[in-house]
Amino acid sequence: MNSKILVFVAAWLVSNSLFASLNEWGPTGHRTTGKIAESHLKKRVLKKIDKLLDGQSLAFVSTFGDEIKSDKRYNEFYSWHYINMPFDKTYETSKKNPKGDLVTGINKCIEVLKDNNSTKEDKAFYLKMLVHLVGDLHQPMHIGRPEDKGGNTIQVQWFGRGTNLHRVWDSDMIKEWGMSYLELADNAEDLSKAQIKVIEQGTVIDWVNEVHQTTKKVYNSVKVGENLRYQYNYDHFNTARHQLQLAGIRLAKLLNDIFG
């Protein structure tokens, strides 16, 4: 093969791999969160959201936050997808990104949605962003260490294929399980009203600090270069499913408070 073609192919593979590793939860994970959220919304809230989104579902719009990354007009929202936080810090004591982060992004979305003077266009935009960001918040590697960019530079293998810790939790485990977002949502854990009430408690910052505890466990679950296979999926996929369910329930809580 021509050397120039080889260089081009290698560059494409690297860029494509990096892009995939930054697609928080991947489409299936985000859509699962949106679908779970819909099952916890009040009927009157569902109607308001349906009107605002012109009939599009929360699952459908859940990937919007990633889709706009290719448009430079939306570069200001890039830092909203994550928080870089050392193990020994809480959100309150950590150094904040001056460009904003998940907490400031979610709070901005809520502010716009609650403002009676916001246009329908703005409300629809920030609703789509909120759906996406609450999903991101519950992906453990989105509250990762700054030195490895949330696990993006921790190289491992997934069934013999090169990947990184971030992408394993974004999409590799979910893809390996082979279920659609509808199947994942339909098979979410059966929780009592009391259990749901507990999950709904707290603030966005409380949820960040809670997820950060899971983040620490994820970092400790691998060694650099390790070939992760069936055992890793068996040991950790239920944690990923649990995080998706937490995200859906808490997204519904925020939306019920905003539109209820």
Can you walk through the features of this model?
The protein is mainly alpha-helical and 260 residues long. It has a single domain (28-259), classed as Orthogonal Bundle (P1 Nuclease). The protein has twelve helices and three strands, in the order H-H-H-H-H-H-H-E-E-H-H-H-H-E-H. The chain has helices spanning 3-21, 26-38, 43-52, 58-61, 64-67, 102-114, 120-137, 165-177, 181-186, 193-200, 204-219, 230-259, and strands at 155-158, 161-164, 227-228. A three-stranded mixed beta sheet has the order 2-1-3. Strand 1 (155-158) and strand 2 form a beta hairpin. Helix 2 crosses helix 12 and helix 6 (102-114) packs antiparallel against helix 7. The longest helix is centred in the C-terminal third of the chain and has 30 residues, at 230-259. The radius of gyration is 18 Å and the shape is globular. The N and C termini lie far apart (61 Å).
Short summary of the structure?
The chain is mostly helical. Helix content is 59%, strand content 4%.
From the 3D coordinates, which CATH architecture would you assign?
Orthogonal Bundle
CATH superfamily: P1 Nuclease
Give the CATH level 1 class.
Mainly Alpha
CATH fold title = P1 Nuclease
**Largest sheet: number of strands, sense, barrel closure:** 3 strands, mixed
Strand order of the largest sheet: 2-1-3
What is the string of SSEs from the N terminus onward?
HHHHHHHEEHHHHEH
**DSSP strand tally:** 3
What value does the Rg take, in angstroms?
18 Å
Report low-confidence residues grouped into runs of 5 or more.
1-23
Helix fraction, binned, reads 55-70%
Described by the principal axes of the CA atoms, the overall outline is globular
Based on secondary structure, the structural category is mainly alpha
- Total individual domains: 1
Q: How many separate helices?
A: 12
Give the termini distance in whole angstroms: 61 Å
